[in-house]
Amino acid sequence: WNEIIELFRAGMPLRKHRCRFKSYERCFKASEAVDCLHELLGSNQNFGPEVTRDQTVKLLKKFLKNHVIEDIKGRWGKEDFEDDGRLYRFPPSSPLKSYPKKPSCGKEVIKFPDWNEPKAGRSQEQIPVKSVALNSEMWYKRHSIAIGEVPACKLVFRRELTQTNIEEIWKSMTLSRLQKVLGLDSLDEVLDTKLVNSKHIVQNVYNVNKQGIVILEDKSKELPHWILSAMKCLANGPSCSDLKQPTYSGFERDVFKTIVDYFGQMKEPLLTFHFFDIFVSVLGLLQKPSKAIEALQISCLLLPPENRKRLQLLVRMMARISLNQDLPPLSESVRTRILMVQAFSRCILCSKDEIDLDELLAAKLVSFLMDNYQEILSVPSALKSSIEDHVVHLQRVQIKYAGADSDAPLPPPSFCHQASTGEFEYQRATGSQEPLAALLEEIVTNKEISVKDKKKKLKQFQKSYPEVYRVRFPTPETEAMLFPEKTKQKPPILMWALKKPFQPFHRTRSFRM
User: Less crowded by CB within 10 Å, the N or C end of the chain?
Assistant: First the structure.
């Protein structure tokens, strides 16, 4: 939303127009706005040339409703924008939406349980310690540490990991890897980690068949048999041997409509409302396909198992239908691939509030899913091996020697370096303040706007971002230097008096009674 608004405000030409014998500065026609925005959306990597002119008009209707634009009379709030010659302009206030803040509970750092602690009732002093003496040569070969006699050693018994412990390890390391792949300092802005179910991750990894499709424990959540038969019929095309194909014309279209109706009546998309932001954030990685595939691999592990299975079956069917040359056309006017995206994109991804751009974002993501579904909907092998190795390490009994390097605690085997609280706060502050400081500097140095407009914009900026404004103008004196006062010249009183001498009031006859 914010990206498109910024591009539109920067790229929309503004000029003088006349309407009903009046002239209006810095405005544009509705048709000019459609032309400009349609071209911007078509060249943007997150949307592409598939965007139609009608979709552009619908988006401009949303812009008018949300006060991104207003008519020349200052009216907005309705979706009555049309592709005609009416005049519109940009409002002086910023139309950008602030990102919703997650609750404070999402800021908790995911910690690994400490299984190095001994079991209750058995202290470290009670662990048997045996002193061993070796010659220096064997010591060097076996341990590669300082030559000398073996110091006292201790057997460190690990706590037995429960299934809950293992599930929490999977959740922690999976989210850590996802954060690194997305290149974020924190997942708080795109995901509430409290909503991630660790059991779902483990089930999606291990409860699968030979094809990698999830096996559900609760059979009542399976797709109905008739829907599976219909999907199999279209995916395999006319060559489906285990089904008796009818002979009437239009059979495939009827089957396709049945599948579309079934998935269209779902109350929540397959990628769920909770994970909408995390999947939308992957769209920025589509220029790097390997990164985008890994990010989607991990994100799909967070889904409920029944959602993941339905997604696997649906996307596989869509991809096979798109490539099936023997299947009769399912539409007279739309190509099969585009028809697949249009029919199923909303049941795969949409937001709870159905905000603007949902349709375009979903179409972009679904197209990428269809092209790479075999990799995306499989279990990431590197992540699985790393987590399994870590679990084995935690369960292994270790020998620790007093004074040796093994006394130092092992760092948690995470995929990214853990920042301190101070570093995190600094990154969060600088990450958001730097672009705001650049925007403030642009307002200050802009010589094209009048002094009155500049003061108005600075006042709005100070009200919205007081901390950033205080850094640029720490004292009233620094702010006053931006607008030096002009010396006012006193009018020449004497000259004026000479040019216009005082004339006394003369009573005339008209005032007499």
Answer: C
